[in-house]
Amino acid sequence: MLLTAVIFLPLLGALIAAFLPAGEPGQHRGWAFFVTLATFGVSLALWAGFDSRPGAAEFQFALKVPWIASAGIGYHVGLDGVALLLVMLTTALTPIVILAAWSVTERVKEFLIAVLVLETAMIGTFAALDLVLFYVFWEAVLIPMYLLIGVWGSQNRLYATVKFFIYTFVASVLMLIAIIYAALHAGGSFDYLVVRDALRVGADAQKWLFLAFAVAFAVKVPMFPVHTWLPDAHTEAPTAGSVILAGVLLKMGTFGFFRYAMPLFPDAALQFRPAIAVLAVVGIIYGALMCLVQGDMKRLVAYSSVSHLGFVMLGLMALTAEGLTGGVYQMLNHGVSTGALFLLVGMLYERRHTRLISEYGGIAKQVPWIATAFVVVTLSSVGLPGTNGFVGEFLILAGTWLGRMPGTQLLAVLGATGVILGAVYMLWLVERVFFGTITSDENRHLPDLSLREAFVIAPMIVLIVVMGLAPQPFLAPARPAVDRLVTRMQEADRRLRTRDPGRPPSVGGQQPALALEPTTAPGALAAMPPAGGSH
Amino acid sequence: MDPKNLQVLVDVNLKSVAWFYPELWLIFGSMGVFILDLVWRKNRGRVRLLAGATLIVLACSGAALAMQPADAVSLFNGMIATDSFANFWKWLFLAAAALTVVISSGSQEFAPERIGEFFALLLAITLGMFLMASATNLLMIYMAIELVSMVSYVLVGYRRADRKAHEAALKYVIYGGVASGVMLFGMSYLYGLLGTANVTEFAVKLAALSQGFAGAAPGAAAATKLALVLATVFVSAGIGYKVAAVPWHMWCPDVYEGAPTPFTAFLSVGPKAAGFALAIRFFFGAFAGKMGATGLADSVAGIPWPAVVGVISAVTMTLGNLVAVVQTNLKRLLAYSSIAHAGYMLMGLAAVSATGMQSVMIYSAIYLVMNLGAFLVVILVAQSTGSESIFEYRGLARRHPVAAVAFAIFLFSLTGLPPFAGFMGKMYLFYALFERIGIPGGGWYATLALIGALNTAVSLYYYARIIRAMFLDPPYEKAAPVEASPGGQLLLGAFSAFILVFGVWWNPIVNWSARSLQIFRG
Q: How high is the ipTM of this complex?
């Protein structure tokens, strides 16, 4: 019930907001802020109540109620550690986003209703344990996001929002087909747990099913080469839209791989893994290179998302405990640091009404607090030790290096160049925007952070530092889920190897001390030194 | 004739009347409304009075339907059958007719002097649709289709002063005439080959006929089979024309544009649903074997009609959607979209299974509400602006938020996005196809499902174009304000609520359709 309350609180808030007078934006802002804050408060109880010990139940706070019994569809929700982290990310980001959107003055009521509905859909996507329920939440995200970009976006918003909508919808329809097919071949139930255990399909069918899911998720991530909607959508969206898009929506894709595509179709996932890993590395490098040539700050941050999400995918495809943990951690990092970057860029935009880098320069003296915050966030984004970004990227690259996939070390090396390029484009951005001499007179009298903006950005900075210095509380809940996935994939790997004896083992790490051999208990990961303490 | 046999015939007919009260109400109600139309000639409130009278007739018919004994029986010497399957459709038709009466009584497209004849003829069409849903004899099928068609021709040309209405009515007559001629020709073949016009006896006769193939000369068997296939295709021309399936769809856009919009709305849901009712009864009743425990059936004597329907379905939805993309007149856009939706529903027919039937029934029920709702918005906007062009919808979200939000709900539902009811309708159609895929020889269903999914994506493009115009584009500076009567708004709200509620809680529709799968098979 607690989880259901967290899912539907924002929706309830939106319903009540619909009855508040449209002419009083202040009332709406206050109400929406209160609702999202309350949601965050309730979700803290989830965080506190989650048992991340190895023996604990896989899905906690579970609730299962028959919904359309005749079709095998149920309202089934529950959280594993990864979903818990992402739900927390969502509930934490949304009040910040609403606080940041105080400056929206046009159609405030509709704006906030859209954000609240979006929050319900996002939490629901992470919490659903029924394939139809998942699909419903997954698609329900589209409509509010379509409106957020289309109504409150900047000049080219119509093109961007239609592109975003159609891109993601086309991919998800294929997933719907795969969902129905999978459920029919799992005894007619749409329950995730039932399908995962009872799915009986041939190797070919499994390949197609995996592809249908993977394409839907890859578009959302977005992976190269289906990323082209993202720069447009990010750039044109209002600040709140960009933050939610980067902070949470993209994680729905990576989460989909982690929760659905890989565990449901492990054999096919292993077969497509090298291709996906290569695409992830291409995305890392391509995104970073594109960042180097952007003249628009938001577009630059958007392409940096392509690069960062490439890291997440590389970590997931490594299929080592480190890589997966790093991938999960990087999802959170990206939500925090890229979200913060979009917030800061939005603040600059509100002051100067331009996103062009060339319009800025030397403003650090005028806006020292914004500059400081921007530098801290940048350092997190490039993965400086002591910030959260370092933990994630280090685990991902280490996990990839230690993996058993053919050519994995080459991928790790190539991925590492992305870290270097990341430092180059981000630091260069900071230099061009904040340092040097002031070239434009309009930049001489910019106001610094207001109190509200300080409250917007402060939690992000705190998170960056805390997650960088003490990652353990954030890593711990993810571990059981990661272990289970590794075990599941190892079983699939063994199946493939009995069919094809020449095939080398490809799942898990190379060093027994770090990796999970099938003989060791899932708790063996506890032997891994806490990654945050390694520097 | 031997008087004893005659007595039996008369007895059967008299006994059948007990199951015929709903239709009788419509027959006499239609006449009654004509008379009332004359009685209230000078009355100022005649529109309301006549609408009320028509609604009462429909309500009485509904009451008779509710009180009717529930058993499946053959009536009038095998002309029609009554069963829970027919009743399901009859409820849909009554709902469509009642909603159309409500919508048109608030519409300015009907002059108050002539609205009585519209209501009376609407009741006549409803009667025709009732018969279409329960006809079990080739002649009765033909009669029922013609009853619906003839009255439709008249009502399409209702606006006598409008050139477009003339064009539409004439096109409708010509296409309709050709289609029913072709269908009648096919029926004559069927009668000649099988020796009976009773659809419920077809399956047995067909099985006997195909057993005879073994001993016959090889050429004779092939020729008979070819004749059977041709006859089936010809008969499906009549049905395809009613549901507006490609290649019998050409009348649809012009007729939809030319007809008074409330009647267009009715045409897009009522006769289309009746066409599907007839198609299911004809194909499942006559050309499919008994359903097994899994709910799957096979076509009798290896006639490849599921494949034919599948191809028609794929072509219909693809053409409908692709052409809809370039439309700027909303009535034409919705016409092509209704062609596409016929294509989706044909997927369920092609599956030849209990789920397939059920999915068509569920989809028809939901489609009824969402499409009537969409047309209602078109009517409201056209009344204020005088045009059905998509450009009149720019900035509708500011000019009339209720209409814009309701229209968005209907359009998202037509696309098949969750959590709207259209999503679950579409899901059941796909579900029906997937039940077939694992079975030997069912591989092509996967292709059909894929085409259906891609079409859904295409349809999003043009539905989203309207939503974009309403919510994202600014209104023209001189755009006329849009006003809707409280009744119209209430109706919009009710339709939207239906779509939203059944989008997340569709048990009632599913259970109702599952109970209504019983088809009289002789």
A: 0.85
